[in-house]
Write a structure and sequence with these properties.
Number of strands: 8
Distance between the termini: 32 Å
Order of helices and strands: EEHEHHEEHEEEHHH
CATH topology of the largest domain: Ribosomal Protein L9, domain 2
Radius of gyration: 26 Å
Shape: elongated
Number of domains: 2
Largest sheet: 3 strands, antiparallel
Helix content: 40-55%
CATH architecture of the largest domain: Roll
Length: 206
Amino acid sequence: MKVLFLQDVRPTARAGDVKEVKNGFARNFLLPQGLAVHASEHELRRATSLRNQAEDRRLGEAKEWQDIADALKAQKIRIEVRTGPTGRLYGSVTNTMIAIQLSKMTKREIDRRGIQIPAPIRTVGEYKIPARFVEGVSATLIVEVVADDASIELNRQMEEVSALITEEDRNVLDPSFEDILAAAEAKITAEADVSSEKASDPETEE
């Protein structure tokens, strides 16, 4: 079916485009949602006007997003996560987590798909992450990954306990003492991984 797109439907078409699409896609989605109409002779006369209006709208949106991207150059996106004593994360930072924090900072909806994490983030620190907001507007985000309050307190307590136990005490207590500590940390890690998986939508996460 040939249709005239009334609105941008990325990545299929832009407003004003005339394209052949599958009948089911048109009848079940495009036409009922008002995103497109049948490409009749009458409707095709609107194509040029629609393209011009859409282009003006895109230019306005690009200007707004460019202002946001420029403002973010001087800011850090702070992500608080659960960590172990060495600063290693229980899980990893995802583009969804960054998008949520960005949305809070900018008061705008951020598409997580525009945030491309080059390599898994599994330790605290600062990372440069490329992001694409809309067509033609990109930025390099400075993401600061830090331990959350619960992790800081737990790690502090573990350090205090460890400092009180001398090497002699360790030998007297049990030769498998280190294994017990490792098992306890592994359990915490497993529980955190489960929580992280529940927090991320497996159908939308890249």
